[in-house]
């Protein structure tokens, strides 16, 4: 069967009708890659999978939400969409707006979004405005503007974004034949953890899965409002995608944590960069730093004995499955990669010198 994107695939679970004009880039259907290294790190009886959302059309999971948000916006007759963004939302909104021929306006925190994401928003023709402030300031402004003008807000406060993004949990259940036992994921504005949890609950309710995962969300240590229980005024982290001090879906993230019996913890920039390099160098999977928070969190919890402790009693005859969500592609932020490694050496264009440099 041809693949026609998440709305076509999961139509029965989404608020669309025959009349909804579907704007799609064939997002979704991303691989669930078994991780040999992380599975053996956890030991016998555990299996770790990487949901590589960086392979969506614009390089992040946002496309799942944006196909829904833009399709519904077009159905409602809107002529412009707007968002605040740490980068990926703006890249995705710009692409889907371009495809449907509507205007896209984005507000970004000045100097704080990765270069690849800025390039995407601009090349897709969005009107990009950098503000002298952070993501939270940008989102406040966008809310005010879209409240007062006929412009559709496409941040994850838009419920159609959540609807689209929940399809990632459907895919995981379809691929594993049931829900995993644990899920590790980054948390920024907290829309995605909200969406996954909604998806897992709906799939179980419809009889498509028999269990629910424990949801483990990770914020960056310098931007961890949910962990600290209060908004962070000046959030800081090298994982710019999740540099968010006052998440819009805070309460829903807490609900996902508590209903699933999971947790929301934080990981340091150092732990994020270590996981980032492990993923690239040992798994062959290049992600952006925010996405590596999933694996940094997995490692942290493993070292605390969390998975063994929370392994349920009735799982003796099967492996415990843990899925780490890798939300965005590494090419989004090439500067970070270059800064983590040794730059290539330059030698004369001569066989002997090249051979010597290689060590042959
Ligand atoms: C790669 O693009 O908020 O917790 O404005 O780009 O649903 O916010 C991005 C968030 C994780 C956090 N990983 O997801 C934006 C934006 C990556 C991201 C998150 C983001 P949410």
Could you walk me through the main structural features you see in this protein, from its secondary elements to its overall organization?
- With 360 residues, the chain is of the alpha/beta class.
- The protein is 44% helix and 15% strand.
- It is built from 16 helices and ten strands.
- It has helices at residues 6-9, 36-42, 62-75, 88-100, 115-123, 135-148, 159-165, 167-176, 191-205, 225-228, 250-260, 269-283, 289-303, 306-310, 334-340, 351-358, and strands at 32-34, 46-52, 80-84, 103-109, 127-131, 152-153, 182-186, 214-220, 263-267, 320-326.
- The strands form two sheets. It has a six-stranded mixed beta sheet, sandwiched between helices.
- β3 (80-84), α4 and β4 form a beta-alpha-beta unit.
- α4 packs parallel to α5 and α7 crosses α9.
- The model has no long low-confidence stretch (mean pLDDT 97).
- The structure holds ligand AN7.
- The site of ligand AN7 has 21 residues, from α4, α9 and α13.
Annotation keywords:
360 residues, alpha/beta, 4-stranded parallel sheet, 16 helices, 10 strands, 15% strand, binds ligand AN7
Largest sheet: 6 strands, mixed
Class by alpha and beta content: alpha/beta
Model regions low in confidence, pLDDT < 50 over at least 5 residues:
none
Rg over C-alpha atoms, rounded to the nearest angstrom = 20 Å
Shape: globular
Catalogue the ligands.
ligand AN7
User: How many strand segments?
Assistant: 10
Biggest sheet strand line-up: 1-2-10-7-8-9
Distance between the termini: 50 Å
Mean pLDDT: 97
Secondary-structure element pattern, one letter each: HEHEHEHEHEHEHHEHEHHEHHHEHH
Task: Supply the number of helical segments.
Answer: 16
Helix content: 40-55%
Percent strand equals 5-15%
């Amino acid at each position: 069967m041809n693949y026609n994107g998440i709305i076509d695939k999961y139509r029965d679970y989404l608020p669309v009708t025959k009349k909804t004009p579907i704007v799609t880039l064939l997002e979704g259907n991303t691989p669930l890659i078994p991780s040999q290294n992380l599975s053996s790190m956890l030991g016998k009886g555990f299996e770790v999978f990487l949901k590589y959302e960086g392979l969506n059309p614009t390089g992040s999971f946002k496309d799942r939400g944006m196909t829904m948000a833009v399709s519904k916006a077009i159905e409602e007759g809107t002529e412009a969409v707007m968002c605040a963004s740490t980068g990926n939302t703006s890249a995705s909104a710009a692409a889907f707006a371009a495809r449907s021929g509507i205007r896209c306006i984005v507000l970004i925190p000045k100097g704080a979004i990765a270069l690849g994401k800025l390039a995407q928003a601009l090349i897709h023709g969005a009107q990009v405005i950098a503000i002298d402030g952070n993501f939270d300031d940008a989102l406040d402004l966008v809310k005010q503007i879209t409240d007062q003008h006929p412009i559709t807000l496409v941040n994850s406060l838009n419920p159609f974004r959540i609807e689209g993004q929940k399809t990632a949990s459907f895919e995981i259940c379809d691929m594993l034949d049931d829900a995993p036992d644990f899920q590790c994921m980054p948390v920024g504005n907290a829309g995605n953890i909200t969406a996954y949890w909604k998806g897992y609950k709906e799939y179980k309710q419809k009889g498509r899965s028999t269990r629910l995962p424990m949801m483990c969300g990770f914020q960056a240590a310098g931007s961890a409002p949910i962990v600290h229980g209060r908004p962070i005024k000046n959030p800081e982290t090298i994982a710019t995608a999740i540099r968010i001090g006052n998440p819009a879906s805070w309460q829903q993230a807490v609900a996902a944590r508590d209903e699933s019996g999971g947790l929301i913890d934080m990981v340091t920039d150092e732990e994020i960069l270590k996981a980032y390099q492990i993923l690239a160098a040992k798994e062959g999977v290049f992600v952006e730093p925010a996405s590596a928070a999933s694996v940094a969190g997995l490692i942290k919890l493993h070292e605390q004995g969390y998975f063994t402790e929370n392994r349920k009693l009735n799982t003796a005859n099967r492996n415990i499955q843990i899925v780490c969500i890798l939300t965005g592609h590494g090419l989004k932020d090439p500067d970070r990669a270059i800064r983590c490694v040794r730059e290539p050496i330059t030698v004369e264009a001569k066989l002997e010198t090249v051979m010597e440099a290689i060590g042959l």
